[in-house]
Amino acid sequence: MNQITMKLNADHLIMQALQEDITSEDITTNAVMPEACQGEVQLICKQDGVIAGLEVFQRVFELLDSHVEVEFYVKDGEKVKNGQLMALVKGDIRVLLSGERVALNYLQRMSGIATYTRQIADMLEGSKTKLLDTRKTTPNMRVFEKYAVKAGGGCNHRYNLSDGILLKDNHIGAAGSVTKAVQMAKEYAPFVRKIEVEVETLDMVKEAVEAGADIIMLDNMTPEMMKEAIQIIDGRAQTECSGNVTKENVAALVSIGVDFISSGALTHSAPILDISLKNLHPIE
What's the pLDDT tens digit per position in 151-163? Predict the structure, then answer.
């Protein structure tokens, strides 16, 4: 996440998280540390995984005090081991204590998503199929969670509703049919926008192809149905498999030959990666 992205899309969210955690003061820290004192604390991984969100972790402390220094020994997207020292954080001890929980919340959550994503992405290695995330993200956490998916080796689907056209079941119901929905989307949307259609039956597959959809999402189909759907599409549109895709069942989908597999589980079901700030002490 570069500096421009951070300032434009993340800083205000990080500030909201800090304001949620410190409404008036950090009463515990102010009680035990009434005066400024320089200190150092270690960032330690307590579980094997893939790290993501280091710049966000650092930014939490910088927004509290621009003089905080962080020395990293790992980079986003790298594998980390239980017990590994990943960084040293130096600064006013009061800032280190007050920012600790928010910084770790971001880092643990993002690293958990990157770890889970890498597990599934590794299963797709060697195939033509790319792994996508979805919009099933935590409110106000999308910029962080989608970044974590990329750090873990996945790809981002559309970022939000303004980013691309995806005609789902209720859009099709509102329009009246797949054909009408695609026609209306083509008339409304700029020519640079691709049109994706979610289908649940083989009849809908045929209709979507004939209507000129650019991407056809095969939603909650059996592997056998998906294979037949790909034969019907016959290269006339890109294909995406979706619906309850997890690391437990993704292996069965690799041989089908879809262009993309999308999984909401990447962001809504990934457990956090256990990370701690330890051994805080004063320094000269």
Answer: 999 999 999 999 9
